[in-house]
Every structure is written in structure tokens, then in C-alpha cells.
Amino acid sequence: MLAGVRSPPSRTKSPSWASGLVVGLSCVAAATAGFAAGRVHRRAAAKSADANEGGAADCRRASCEELRHIAVEQAALRRVATLVAHGISSRELFSAVAGEMGRIVGAEHVMVNRYEPNGMLTVVGLWNGGAEGDGSADAGRRAPDDLSADHDPIHRGTRLPIRKGTTSELVLRTRRPGRVTDFRRVDDRYRWIRGRMIGSTVGAPITVQGRLWGVMLSVSTAAEPQPPETEARMMDFTELMAIAIANAENLAEISASRARIVAAADETRRRIERDLHDGIQQLLVRLALELQAAVAVVPHGREEMKARLFRVIDGLADALEDLREISRGLHPAVLSEAGLGPALRTLARRSDPPVELDVGVEGRLNDSVEAAAYYVVSEALTNVTKHAHASRVRVGLHQVGATVRVSVVDDGVGGADPGLGSGLTGLRDRVEALGGGMSLRSPEGGGTTLVAEIPLRPVGAPPES
After folding, report:
1. What pTM was estimated for this model as a whole?
2. H-helix or E-strand spanning residue 114
3. Taking the CB of residue 394, how many other CB atoms lie within 10 A of it?
4. pLDDT digits (tens, 9 = 90+) for 28-72
5. How many of the other CB atoms lie within 10 Å of CB of 328?
6. Extended strands (E) in 300-402
7. What domains can be seen in the chain, in order of their start residue?
């Protein structure tokens, strides 16, 4: 499809622009896990020093017990750091962290809540007493959604008002870890969980890039309070969670920003195309008509004048055709007026070599999706004409699940390299900005296959009404 330059096949499954940010934040996650592990060691040393005052036997027992806690907690921190580095979904991460935290502190229930701006909080992660059984982060992600009895429905997505006297309110007010052990003045709904009265709750703030994002709660129905080191252990995990949340928010904002840039550029192209069509093109047409009328009234015997006028008319026609070609390159009017199918059929009619077109999508799509698909096909056909020496091209457009799949396959010389200024790099950026991906397979002598997959509802698109 491109000049016959040897290169290995190129495949893009995830946005390449994000890889640097993901790697950087993953390193931060690993470093945070290391710092947290260091705090675990320091807590162990402090406990051992305290135990020294009670004698050698007590010291050995305390040291062995704390070493066991160290091993368990460090393993849990590493698992969470690995999940953060792999960029799993927020839903999976919140449940995984809640499960790891519940097993570390011995809690019956762990909740991850997000503070909302209207005095509410939303439950985004739950863990229910380790009923899953195997003690791994994967098991934490499989924690059931329902954490409560029928008379006390709390599940992922539940929105609750922040009531005075609860741990969530205490953490919101102080921005620090805290606990509540007296629930006599708390609303009845906040005193029960799965049909049992709550004995104590411990909360640790989740602070993302300097702002209080939410709170992790450890809930116990036991009469005795939770261990005094619970807050410190929870903070180790909330720091890793904050890294993951910042990661997701930054990537989402960059994706939305790139999508807005693409949409703004497409709208500018459409406006310029309309201005050219309604302004300069119409002016040139009127001038050509006026000159033709002038030719009709030229006196007999003034053949030289007629010839000059005809040359001017021909020049205006050439200029008008060039302007139309530029206008189509900016943004084809048929794409705006009739949609992607007719626009691709227009491209196919103009192509050399001939194109076998298979359009399996009916109706109109999102403007950005239509523009991206059109330009992928247009650029690919241009490259086929210039470089591929192909005898035939197949172009396909189909809906696959929630995506549109665009394919361009030629039988040319292959050896395409998108890194040599072909225009495909810019197209890949456009497709990835919408949350899609593009792949290229072009073995030497084996033709070229270009595939782009674009979400039907791209990144940054407004929600459907």
C-alpha cells in the first residue's frame, strides 16, 4: 500500500500515546508499594522494641507474629501494585483492594466510597467477609455486590447521604483517618449491616492529587474495637488506590481532550468547505456565466477577442475544478449531506485500481466516526494508487458489536511502513483519539491489509438521550 519499504507487521491494540503515562504511573505505584512496605517494617520494629520491655519470650512471640503480618501485608501490597500497573478497571480494582484490606485487618466488611459534591457518597467497592475463600486479589474482585440484609440494602452504586456521627463524615471533616465506636446517635440505617449491629468502623481517606476523593471503611460487628494499627494499614492501600484513580482520570481527560481536538478540527473543515462552496465557488460560476454571455455579444470579425474570452472561461473552469478538489479534501460535502456509505461509493468510483466495496452499515453514524472511517479509506486508496501496484482493492465497512470495523485490502507489492510519512500515522492518532485502534499487515510481496476499529460511541461523545 505504501512504497516498497520492508518492515514487520504493525499492530496497535491500545493507544500508543498513553503508554508513557501508564508506565510512569506504574513506576509510581511500585514505588508507593515500596514505601508502604517500608512503613510496615518500621511498625514491626516499633512493636518489637515495645515487646522488649516485657521480656525475651514476649519479644520473640511479638517479632514472629509481626513478621508474619509483614509477609502477608507486603504480598497484598505487591498484588495491588501489579493490578494498578496493569490498568484494570476501577470496579475490579476497588473490589480487589477492599478484599485485600479485609483480609489484612481481619474485617468482616470493607467498603470503598466516593464522595459526591452534593453531600452524598456512592459505594464503588465492597468486600463481604471473605466468603469467596481463596484469599487472592482475584477472589476480592469476585466479591458479591450485595453486602446487606434485605432490610439494609447496600450494594455497588448505592448512594447514601453523609450523616453526622458516621466515619465517612468524620473523615470528610478532618481529612484524616478516624474511627467510630459509638453508634447510639447515628441513624438506624447506619447501625446495622447484614442484620447485625455494627460495633465499630475505621475509615482512611483516599486523597487523589491533593483532593479528598473518597474513604475506605473497615466495618466490624464485634463488640471489641478494631486493632489500633488498622488505620495505618489501611492508609498503605489507599495510597495505591489513589495512584490508580489518578491514572484513570488522567488517561480519561487526555482521551477526551484529544477527541475534542479531532471534533473541532472536523467542524472547522466542514465550515471551510461550506464557505468555499457557498462563496468562492459560486462567484467563479457566476463569472464564467457572465463571460459566456459576453462572448455571445462580441461583434463578428472580433475572433481574437472571442478566443481570449474562451481561454478565460476555460481557466475559470480549471480553477473551479481545482477548488472543488481542495474542498473535497478538506471535508467532502457528500459525507456531510448523505453519510458514510455514499461518500465511500464516491471514493470507490474515482479509484484506480478498481474497488470492491462492501458496506454493511445502514443509517448515519456519529460525525467523528464517519469522518475517521472516511479518511482511513481515502488515505489508504491514495497509497494504493501511488505505491502498491495493485490490480484490485477490497474495502469493507461493518458493525462488530459496539464498534465500526473498516478494512482496506489490496493485492499489491506489500512492504508498507507507516513510519515513513505515509499519512497513516495521523490517521492512527485520529482513530485512537476516538478510543479505537488501527492495525497494518504488509508482508513483502503479499499485499497490504489495513484494519481500523472505531467505537460507535467515541471517547468524549455526549451521552445518548
Report:
1. 0.51
2. strand 109-115
3. 14
4. 444 444 544 455 455 555 555 554 454 555 555 656 766 777 788
5. 18
6. 355-359, 393-400
7. 105-228 (3.30.450.40)
